[in-house]
Amino acid sequence: MSDARGTTGFLTVLLGGAGLLHVARPAPFDSIVPPALPGSARGYTYASGAAELGVAGLLAIPRTRRLGGLAATALFIAVFPANIQMAYDWRHARPRKRVIAYGRLPLQGVLIAQALHVARSV
């Protein structure tokens, strides 16, 4: 169970921090919202930031932790198109930026696995 606690803590901090960044500095997140989505990129940035903060809250409270793990799984799947968009947009960028953009793709699978682990460990 301690492994699940560490994973829960990591995901809580990651999602809480990301949610705060989406609100405090939305421009970098706006730039990776797929243009095919209807509406404004800023709306998606704020919505995903609010979702991240909400999921972090669910993970932080033992009574809602299972729901938080499931919600984190859904959130990580939902934002994956932004990671694909970033990889596409940065495909001709400097090598460092390409490594970051391409590295996010498999990392999303790791985050999904961790969120499922939390949901199943409660």
From TrEMBL:
The keyword Membrane applies. It comes from Brachybacterium sacelli. It comes from the Bacteria. Keywords: Membrane, Transmembrane, Transmembrane helix. This is Membrane protein. The chain crosses the membrane at residues 67-88.
